[in-house]
Design a protein that fits this description.
Number of strands: 13
Strand order of the largest sheet: 5-4-6-3-1-13
Oligomer: single chain
Structural class: alpha+beta
Helix content: 40-55%
Distance between the termini: 11 Å
Radius of gyration: 21 Å
Bound molecules: alpha-D-galactopyranose
CATH topology of the largest domain: Ribosomal Protein S5, domain 2
Amino acid sequence: MHDLIQQISDKFRARFGVEPLLVMSPGRVNLIGEHTDYNEGFVLPAAIDKAVVFAVAPRQDTVCHFVSQDYGQEFRCDLHELGRSPLRWPDYLEGVIDQFVRNGYAVRGFQCVFGGNIPIGAGMSSSAALEGGLAFAVNEMFRLKIDSLTLVKLAQKAENKFVGVHCGIMDQFINIHGLEKKVLKLDCRSLEFEYFPFERPDLRIVVCDSLVRRELASSEYNVRRRQCEEGVEVLKKYAPGIRSLRDVGFCLLEEHRADLDPVVYRRCDYVIRENIRVEEACRDLLTGDFKSFGERMGASHAGLRDGYEVSSPELDALVEAAAKVEGVLGARMMGAGFGGCVISLVEEGAVPELRERVSRDYQASFGRTPNIHVIRIEAGTHVI
Ligand code: GLA
């Protein structure tokens, strides 16, 4: 990470000739609780040791000038004339600026060089790292004194309104609130949160990237969200108090199964079960029962595959290969799905065999070798 920080700050100085403010904005893993955030349920993410580094400095005018180290591209826009770019990556940044402007914050133009090592589109939230990191940097740079929850919501809105993905709040929340060696249980309705230690010296979190990329915006993500809303609309007729799937229990769902489209029923059933799994997994953490925790990860994957139908043959194959390795406590697809990666909880001694097995099986089935990352849980976005 030190090299990355050096590269970005050197590049900024060479390009703009002033000292930048440096901000580090991490990616995330989610241990359990997938597609529950926009249903006002529970999630259990952590910030990781893969990040985007931003170097920024204010300008006197209203121009925002971005230099992307990874794409080798530059982009300029005016605070008052923001629009989507064919380059795509500027949308995540312009979306953030757009939110500052719309909310009447006293911002000016600025220069920015950024780059990182979060695999893009792999389900480790490279987009939330861009949004959360820039929101944080702008807040610091112009001394706006915006509180962290407001920054989270602003970053989420950037994605909802400007990029057009109706994502929940998980990724932006953990990006700002992550803590070293801790997972965060977030109640996505009340936004109350609680940290749980996630550290056993003999356990590792391993992320296997399928290398399959599906664009969230054009994908089924928004469709899933609508299906959940449809379930709530139908069930509301019988239980007017419910606001989201968070309020729905098995009894209500089963009682009105016949009224629901079978696909909608399956989506609702998955969400209800996944919320319960998050609560139970947190109890496992309190008792240090990582074996049970791992089994819940496996159950979560089965639900995402069969009930929510957001897995893919590649992700299923990665989970199956991992499950065959002794010392793997659990594995599941992570993030929105359809592509991206699988997260496994693994005994340290089993990591070499996991690498071997997963690479071999995946190569045999799909003709390519997945990227495998052993990750550490690190702090959320902060000034370097
Ligand atoms: C994406 C979204 C999150 C969440 C996950 C699925 O990462 O950005 O809000 O919905 O998918 O759990």
